[in-house]
Amino acid sequence: MDVLSNARQHLAAADPILARVITSTNASPPFTGHTNYYQALVDSIISQQLSVKAAAAIEARFKNLFENDFPSPEQIIEKDDELLRSVGISRPKVRYIKDLAQHILDGTVRFDMFDSLDNEAIIQELTQVKGIGEWTAHMFLMFCMRRLDVLPVGDLGIRNGIQRLYKLPNTPSPEMVIEIASQRHWHPYESVASWYVWHSLDNAPKV
Predict the structure, then answer these.
(1) Residues near 127 by beta carbon (within 8 Å), at least 6 away in sequence
(2) What are the distances in angstroms from CA 60 to CA 4, 47, 157?
(3) Helices assigned H by DSSP within 15-127
(4) Active site includes 155?
(5) Which of 46, 129, 178, 205 has its CA 20 to 30 A from that of 168?
(6) Distance CA 187, CA 62 (A)
């Protein structure tokens, strides 16, 4: 039995409400994982507050600036800001992308060390980069690194989904999300539980 099957079995046994969501769908969380961390974070910055279609168009034009190859951190640093803006990247996002590139070049973000770090250490390292907040770090851990023990407490979809599933009178605070996850024994599969909460709203992130 693979780890996602174990996760579904654990969650279905521990949480009857979540069990109904899990058994009502054949869908499974797309936590395949990969090691292209740098490109994933650049793409994440570019796509912030954009539709999937708009983000894909801008990312394609961005690559075209570098002869259709994804640029290295050095190439991003060297590229003129106005050229980057010309493909539809906002001025703040240009700063964020360059800040990420600079953190990689000066060694304050070291992707080669991430596998040896716990979730909190990775969040702390990533959120020192302008434009990368806790939500982006949580999505990175879940969908890029395939960490199955991540609870994105600040995500509005998670909070709305929990409110609906558990018939709460109000949208739960991040602290309440932590409490509910603990009471329902989601650990060590909070990522999987979160995905099914998203799925119950048909609002799973497209990562």
Answers:
(1) 133, 134, 137
(2) 33, 12, 28
(3) 16-23, 37-47, 52-64, 73-78, 81-85, 91-105, 119-126
(4) yes
(5) 205
(6) 39
Ramachandran region of residue 92, left (φ > 0), alpha (ψ -120 to 50) or beta? Answer: alpha
**For residue range 155-203, what is the model confidence (pLDDT) as tens digits?**
999 999 999 999 999 999 999 999 999 999 999 999 999 999 999 987 6
Taking alpha carbons only, the member of 60, 198, 53 closest to residue 138 is 198
Gap between the Cα atoms of 37 and 115, Å rounded: 11
pLDDT for 108 beyond 80: yes
Token pair of 145, please? 């690194």
CA-CA-CA-CA torsion sign (15, 18, 24, 28): negative
SS3 content of the chain, % helix, strand, coil (to 5): 60, 0, 40
Rounded distance, CA 35 to CA 171, Å? 35
Give the pLDDT of residue 206: 56
What percent of the chain is predicted at pLDDT more than 90?
Answer: 88
Rounded to a whole number of angstroms, the distance between the first and last alpha carbons of the chain is: 25
2, 81, 155, 202: which one is catalytic? 155
C-alpha pair distances (Å), 112 with each of 31, 53, 71, 93, 121? 20, 31, 19, 25, 14
* Mean per-residue pLDDT over the chain, rounded: 94
Q: At what angle do helices 52-64 and 37-47 cross, to 10 degrees?
A: 120
